[in-house]
Specification:
The complex is a heterodimer of chains A (about 180) and B (about 375).
Chain A: H1 3-28, H2 31-47, H3 55-67, H4 70-75, H5 96-108, H6 113-124, H7 129-136, H8 140-157, H9 176-180
Helix pairs in contact in A: 1-2, 1-3, 1-6, 2-3, 6-8, 7-8
Chain B: H1 3-17, H2 27-46, E1 51-55, E2 59-65, E3 92-98, E4 107-110, E5 115-118, E6 122-126, E7 132-140, E8 147-154, E9 160-166, E10 171-174, E11 180-184, E12 198-203, E13 209-213, E14 223-227, E15 233-237, E16 250-255, E17 260-264, E18 275-278, E19 282-285, E20 295-299, E21 304-309, E22 325-327, E23 332-337, E24 340-345, E25 351-356, E26 364-368, E27 379-380
Antiparallel strand pairs in B: 1-2, 2-3, 3-26, 4-5, 4-27, 6-7, 7-8, 8-9, 10-11, 11-12, 12-13, 14-15, 15-16, 16-17, 18-19, 19-20, 20-21, 22-23, 23-24, 24-25
The chains are: A mainly alpha (about 180), B mainly beta (about 375).
Chain lengths: ~180, ~375
């Protein structure tokens, strides 16, 4: 890697690290693990800098594949068991929407890695199921079933999702790239 | 757009936002990546005590010549062990790797020629002498009717010598003495709650199979983890999805005669899943993948902790991150930190670098090298596909 390539890489890293950290953070729920994943993706990008056309797409792909890799899945148990459940908002509480969001975030941390990857690709990156399938290298039906199972699991872990919560303001749908910029 | 879609979207964005301003300046991860890569390249130029065998552009193997006795103390019995590991530690291992092209290609290496062949299915295990490879693949992916076909192929000729179609038995492991292949089932209402309640044993010397049931003893498990060194028992972790009676502090040991032992102890919860057999009567328990904690040696006869220590390598993981691991024998582990391959003394946690992986490695596994092989072999896969 020559000096110009180093500068180009560092410019890319500086510009895109926050977006990549958002995605890795949503996947892992842990800053250190997210940084590990982003740095790992960037190391691989450094090694192939001359051969990759779209470094960000490449790094994102590395991050997702490493996150859901069987090696990590076999050794996974990122969730922490806790003796005390957090307080839940009472019906009618004006802070209920915030509490609900926190409940869902807590539930997200308990999903299996592939389910969580599908959720992040679908809801953070706004990718279609076809796109998610291509990205993860599996069938569309697998993505559908994973998404369905993930949402079912979220409903189980967070019963408020099924109606008692107040309506939340909708987030405008944008492309995954644009929302990070 | 339904309410649940909106809520989940809102929550995921909120979660992501918590990570959008890293504590360090944004460029630091990039700078750290550059530094890490250049440091590894410098190390590679200095030279390492290994022979590196590059096999084509796609797959590479690193033959690790482990000194005859890298950790003299390891050859001594564990302090509290009533019986010691029966296997003699092989002197050479192979670390084979798969490239990071993410195409999902799998290869089996023919030890007689040191060449790789593309595998027709997912490589799952190799026989201890590396002559045969167990391959598996979904033959009927219909939900609720999933069937997996396993084949045993001769790694030299590619000839299929055995084929069997099973239900959902997604995990398999070959015993150290080569006689048994254990197929663990996976049952449950969904992915999260799937568990093992049955193991099918194939006697490869006769072709006979038998089914061992864990449930009569109230035992369920999550992962088929490892064989004992004497090939007489399998060791599982019991998980919170299992029977309430063993949801905490439990492991399951299943013997080939069908005996089941549920083991309870005072080891930390985080350690219960990342555990492997060590020798014939001990287990090594490691902290979960994002924990930094002690490694624990457990006496399986008494369920008591006989030793614990803080290892030099903090946590298991995978190449490119921080520390994949594999079991070399009852006492030694191979750990990977970045692209460094470390031989780690399971008793003390001290590590010694024995190789550097190819930069493209994303997954590794280990196998002892047979004396007859010109170049030892291993089976590699990517992403469990």
């Amino acid at each position: 890697m020559n000096q110009a390539e180093r500068e180009a890489f560092l410019e890319f890293a500086s510009a895109r690290t926050p977006a990549l950290m958002r995605m890795a953070g949503a996947l892992t729920g842990d800053r250190h693990t997210a940084e590990d994943l982003v740095q790992s993706g960037m190391e691989k990008a450094v090694r192939r800098w001359r051969r990759i056309d779209d470094p960000e797409a490449y790094v994102r792909r590395v991050i997702f594949h490493e996150y859901v890799s069987w090696w990590r899945r076999a050794l996974r148990r990122p969730e922490r068991l806790t003796a005390d459940l957090p307080d839940r908002a009472l019906p009618g509480d004006h802070a209920a929407d915030v509490a609900l969001r926190h409940e869902v975030q807590r539930a997200l941390r308990q999903l299996a890695p592939r389910q969580r990857a599908v959720i992040v690709l679908r809801y953070l990156e706004d990718r279609s199921e076809q796109d998610v399938a291509r990205f993860l290298g599996c069938s569309v039906s697998t993505v559908s079933s994973q998404l369905s199972r993930a949402l079912t699991r979220l409903r189980t872990l967070c019963p408020e999702l099924d109606g008692s919560a107040p309506e939340l303001a909708s987030i405008p749908r944008r492309s995954g790239r644009d929302q990070d910029r | 757009m339904t309410r649940i879609d909106d809520t989940v979207r809102h929550a995921v964005h909120g979660l992501a936002d918590q990570f959008s301003s890293p504590a360090d300046p944004p460029a630091s991860l990039g700078q750290r990546a550059l530094t890490a890569v250049s440091r590894k390249r410098r190390r590679a130029l200095v030279g390492i005590p290994t022979a590196v065998v590059a096999v084509g552009a796609v797959v590479a193997a690193v033959v690790v010549a482990i000194p005859e006795n890298p950790f003299p103390e390891l050859r001594q019995p564990l302090a509290a062990a009533p019986d010691t590991p029966v296997t003699e530690a092989p002197k050479r291992y192979v670390v084979a790797s798969y490239t990071a092209d993410y195409t999902g290609r799998r290869y089996v290496l023919d030890p007689s020629t040191s060449t790789y062949r593309k595998a027709s299915r997912q490589p799952v295990a190799t026989s201890p002498n590396l002559r045969y490879a167990l391959l598996g693949g979904l033959s009927d992916p219909t939900p609720d009717r999933e069937k997996i076909t396993y084949t045993i192929e001769d790694t030299t000729t590619g000839r299929t010598v055995y084929e069997v179609e099973l239900g959902v038995y997604p995990t398999a492991s070959w015993s150290p003495d080569g006689r048994w292949i254990a197929f663990a089932n996976s049952t449950g209402p969904n992915m999260e709650e799937r568990h093992i309640d049955e193991v099918r044993l194939l006697d490869v010397t006769t072709g006979d199979t038998c089914t061992l049931d864990l449930e009569p003893d109230g035992a369920t498990a999550t992962e088929l983890l490892s064989w004992s060194a004497d090939s007489k028992s399998l060791f599982f972790a019991a998980d919170s999805t299992g029977d309430e009676k063993i949801t905490r502090n439990a492991h399951v040991r299943l013997f080939v005669d069908g005996t089941v032992k549920v083991l309870r102890g005072d080891w930390p919860l985080d350690h219960r899943v990342n555990s492997v057999m060590a020798g014939t009567n001990h287990a090594l328990l490691l902290p979960s993948s994002d924990e930094r904690g002690d490694w624990i040696i457990l006496d399986l006869a008494t369920g008591k902790v006989v030793d614990r220590y803080r290892p030099a390598v903090s946590r298991p993981g995978h190449p490119g991150a921080e520390g994949a691991w594999g079991v070399l024998n009852g006492d030694q582990l191979i750990t990977v930190k970045g692209t460094d391959v470390l031989a780690t003394d399971a008793r003390t946690g001290t590590s010694k670098r024995v190789a550097i992986l190819p930069e493209t490695a994303v997954a590794i596994t280990l196998a002892p090298a047979p004396k007859s092989a010109k170049s030892p072999a291993a089976v590699f896969s990517l992403d469990g596909k």
